[in-house]
Amino acid sequence: MTKNVINSTSQQWFTAMLSLLFLLVSAVSIAQENYTVSGKVSDAANGETLFGASVFLEGTSIGVVTNEYGFYSITAPEGNYRLLISYMGYSEKYQEITLDKDQKFDFEISEFSTELEEVVVSADEPERAILRKPEMSVAKMNIATVKQMPVVLGEVDILKSLQMLPGVTNNGEGTGGFHVRGGAGDQNLVLLDEAIIYNTSHMFGFFSVFNADAIKDVKLYKGGIPARYGGRVSSVLDVRQKDGNSKQFAATGGIGIISSRLALEGPLFKEKGSFLIAGRRSYADLLLKAAGEDNSVSFYDLNLKTNYKINANNRLYLSGYFGRDAFELGENFTSSYGNSTGNLRWNHIFNNRLFSNLSVVYSKYDYDLGITTAEFDWVSSITNYNLKYDFKYYFSDKFKLDFGASGIYYDFDPGEIRPTSETSSVNSFILDSKKALESGVYINAEHKLTDNLTAQYGLRYSGFTRFGGQAMVEYANNQPVVYNSVLGIYERGTEVGETNYDKGDVIEKFGNFEPRASLAYVLNDDSSLKVGFSRVAQYIHLLSNTSSATPLDVWAPSGQYVKPQLSNQYALGYFRNFKDKAYSMEAEVYFKNTDNRIDYIDGSDLIGQNTIETEILNGESRAYGLELLLRKNEGDFTGWIAYTLSKSEQRTPGGNAGGLGINDGDWYNTPYDRTHDISISGAYKLNDKLSFGANLVFQTGRPVTYPNGQYEYEGISVASYADRNSDRLPSYHRLDLSVNYKPNRKPERRFKGEWVLGIYNAYNRKNAASISFGQNLETGANEATRTAIFGIVPSLTYNFKF
Amino acid sequence: MYNYIKSIVLLLFVSITSCSDVIDVEVQEGQSRLVIQASLDWEKGTTGNEQIVKLSTSTEFFDTTSNTAVTGASVSVTNDVSGAEFIFIDQNNGEYTTSEFVPVLNESYTLTVIHNGETYSANETMMTVTEITDLYQGLEDGFDDEELELHVEFTDPEDEDNFYLFKFQKQGDLLPEFEVGDDEFVNGNELDWWYEIEEDEDTDKIEALAPGDVVTIEMYGISEAYYGYMDILIDQIGGVGIFSATPVAVKGNCINLTNPDNYAHGYFRLTEVNKTSYTFE
How is residue B82 annotated by DSSP? Predict the structure, then answer.
């Protein structure tokens, strides 16, 4: 038991971190006559706090943007200032202040359209190239932008919209999830109000789990992941739910062909709090049943949020999500799966410079299969409990610190067979449940070194402890997989015994330092250059040997045989605004490599597999690419062109198992490799009543494995397959269009309705989701069959709010 | 058991997908290899003396014209316990036959094929199979509770791990259907294995089982290694969809002693088999 095990407790690490903090703090000179102004910025209409609004002392370079809870804190030398609060899409607000003592100002700002006659469609601040912040490789989407884009099946879809940005792709239609910079789907940390979401899609990817009516904002870190996040090597998708309107009762909803939704929100406790409750349900299943169809699919989900302001310095938030998909195939098979999450948060402002948030988060993903014919149920789940405490310290106008700690306790129940009757021919069986604790402590500084140079640097230490309560199989020569050099295949190793671990025992421990750093250098008022480095460790893995992940795939923790994935990413970017910020351009190049990326041996069997180590080989992956994004942010016509040129590949040598490995140990394409990816998205506002949207997408086809020969065996033609992922599906492309019609737009009326007509895949391209090879049942000749999920899909939705 | 779950995932997906069509696709052309179909099947109640080994070559995937039969090879099988050697005689059509084979359950045999100066070899044990206890039709079970299915009942022997291969063929159909099973979750139980044909509503090319249909059933007891081989093969027969495992090159047990890279496709299996048929009412 040597390895990279670090025996110190996380408490010791926390102490070490704190010492580091003080070291950093003392390095920054302290001016005696400085005072602080702090407070919150929120929307005047509904009281929602605004994340990313900028608060500046006019005429200086002193300022900040508000955090996730709308909080800001500015420290400046004594004097008279004009405080400027701005947020794109909102009118600016000024406040004269005399900074001779610490003080507090809360601001409410209003959206343009509610005040001004002439409506300017304009992107939010975060969507422009942000020059000064070292933050890079971030894709931020405002819900208003998402809602302008054409939709499939009438539902606004955050994930599909993100895929229009550079570096983000899907894995083909009809599959869930998304891929960032050549990474796998399980390498994305998806957070909904800080709770981990394990499956982001409904109906195999037809819809995302995020109900746009309940979402405030969406931020995707493609790289340069801040130190406060950890656990997934590819990206972090941070989705925040709305708090709920604290000014007045409001309803938002939509009626579509496939599904409908309704969100209600309003003040609570005499405006000391608010609530939001939002639900969606598809009803295709009801229609199918009414039509006498036995098979059906359906989903529903529910978002809940409420908050209570105890006093100026303390606020509680409670949020939850519950979603479920259900499938029925006649009476004999049923399946359902879904996420459920809950989060209780306590915002506490220690003083005008120290903001804190304590969260207790619960999250679960589970599925069950009911197989009536064979009289058994198959159930599987992953549950986690997360306690985290985050601080933000606004030390001075030049120096800000984030620090905190978190612990996630996981409970993996990969599978259980339950006979549903006494006559069932199936024996009851439970796969080993697994338990683990993932912990992290971090500290991160945002440090303005000079007027032109800002640095962000930090360190995360993550630990992972795999607990007992199960037996671990031991293999001859410590080889769970063995290369059979006679037959030239990888086989399961020989079990030689078991070690039983009690519940308190530690099976394996890991610890990793994860440095993160980035630097922004402002070249002039309109352009900047940024570089970034991040190292991230990932301790849990989604097991999937299929072309696309399915809802029935199982998560597994690291342990004796499955090592944590470790990734380093390097990025360099150039950012520029043109024509008084009407246009912006972002260009980035990146390189990342990931150690301990597993792949599956030929013929691996993952369903009901108790010893996953016998099915895998350990390898590595690497990805690199160039991303370009050109946006038009203002005017009647807005939109962007995104282009990505990239490569994603992996290598899986035989290692301890012997042999050359998968594909003879050579590099091969990952399924997420897309050489070219072009996305063009545009929105045109003709007048107050009519607007139009369009998306055009082109992508290199997904790497797949095709046959390279055939032979006769036992009366059938058998295909022999080529090297893994050495072929490609045909290129993927499609055009979506939408028309948005707002009748009777009278500003004084509370009730506002709009019709959205969408056409997905307007020229009816049959994009191959897969191509399968087999024999024609009548002639016996081999043929290739393409499966396309969506042809042209028109949809009509009526949205309303009041 | 896994196969149930696998099928369900596929079915779930198929049930929501709309459109599939046959298209032209360019594929790579791999190395042509010798294909050995050495299936020494011993039908219960027979002597098992008559056996055939078929040799052919693999071709480009869409090739329909090549004559793939391999003639002029030498084929023999040796009982590793008794040392008895059985020579298979070249019938000049790719088939090599003997009428003197002596099957002995649970004994190990070695196949030797010499072709083009290269020697291929494989080793396998003769496997037993339990008897079919009942054969009947039903409606309620299966993937569809409104379509007929065939039930094959047998009792799994409790003392060992068992692996099964089923071959079902409806009379008049061009291609047989294969299924494999193991007793991991059902060891020692009385098992009901059902076979149903899913109607293809879009093309009408596949019809569900109907009264008057005759289905032949072959039930083999197979080795774990052959189970592993057929499991992959069956998954890949008829094509690999989006939620199937990524297709892989399947390697059998026939190795090339002269030039290991030039291994042969196919398998050397020795199995006991129940053969029967059922006419639907």
Answer: T
Kindly state the tokens that stand for A158.
């955050």
Burial A131-164 (b: 16+ CB within 10 A, else e): bbbbbbbbbbbbbebbbbbbbbbbbbbbbbbbbb
Cβ of A335 within 8 Å of Cβ of B4? The answer is no
Give the ipTM. 0.91
Q: What's the pLDDT score for residue B12?
A: 52
Alpha carbon of A676: minimum distance to chain B alpha carbons (Å): 21
Question: Between chains, do A777 and B19 touch, taking CB under 8 Å as contact?
Answer: no
Q: According to the model, what pLDDT value does residue A685 have?
A: 86
Q: Hey, what are A501's tokens?
A: 């671990």
What is the pLDDT, as a whole number, of residue B242?
A: 66
Nearest chain B alpha carbon to A766: B19
Residue B62 touches partner A, C-beta closer than 8 Å? yes
The predicted-structure confidence for A180-236, as pLDDT tens digits, reads as follows: 999 998 999 999 999 999 988 887 777 889 988 898 888 899 988 999 999 999 999
Q: Any CB–CB contact under 8 A between B61 and chain A?
A: yes
Q: Which of A195-209, B22-36, B190-204, B235-249 has the highest mean pLDDT?
A: B22-36
For residue A14, the model assigns a pLDDT of 52
Residues of A in contact with B22 (CB under 8 A): 783-786
pLDDT at A2: 37
Distance CA A437, CA A457 (A): 26
Q: How far is A642 from chain B (nearest CA, A)?
A: 28
**DSSP code at position A165:** S
Judging by beta carbons within 10 Å of its beta carbon (0-12, 13-18, 19+), is residue A312 exposed, middle or buried?
Answer: exposed
Secondary structure letter of residue B13 according to DSSP: H
pLDDT tens-digit series, residues A8-58:
444 555 555 555 555 555 444 444 578 888 888 988 888 888 888 888 888
Chain centre distance of CA A659: 37
Please judge whether B246 and A174 are an interchain contact, meaning their C-beta atoms are less than 8 angstroms apart: no
Chain A CB contacts of B247 under 8 Å are: 705, 707, 719, 721
Set of chain A residues whose Cβ sits within 8 Å of the Cβ of B208 = none
Chain A residues whose beta carbon lies within 8 Å of the beta carbon of residue B6: 607
For residue range A63-86, what is the model confidence (pLDDT) as tens digits? 888 888 888 988 888 888 888 888
Q: Work out the minimum CA distance from A483 to partner chain B, whole angstroms.
A: 13
CA pair distance A463, A13, nearest whole angstrom: 10
Closest A-chain CA to B65 = A781
CB A520 within 8 A of CB A454: yes
State residue B4's pLDDT score: 55
Cβ–Cβ contact B142 with A under 8 A = yes
Of B6, B61, B145, the CB nearest to A719: B61
pLDDT digit string (tens) for A90-132? 888 888 888 888 888 888 888 765 333 333 333 334 344 566 6
The domain locations on chain A are 31-120, 138-801
The CATH number that domain B34-127+251-272 falls under is: 2.60.40
Residue B212: exposed, middle, or buried by beta-carbon count in 10 A (0-12, 13-18, 19+)? Answer: exposed
In the three-class reduction of DSSP (H, G, I as helix; E, B as strand; rest coil), residue A59 is classed as coil
- A294: nearest CA partner in chain B: B144
A692: left (phi over 0), alpha (psi -120 to 50) or beta: beta
Flag if B245 and A724 touch (Cβ within 8 Å). no
Low-confidence ranges of chain A (pLDDT < 70): 1-32, 112-132, 151-154, 174, 287-294, 425, 744-747
Assign domain A138-801 to its CATH architecture. Beta Barrel (2.40)
C-alpha distance from B45 to closest chain A C-alpha (Å):
22
What is the nearest CA distance from A646 to chain B, expressed in angstroms?
A: 23
Fold of the CATH domain A31-120: Immunoglobulin-like (2.60.40)
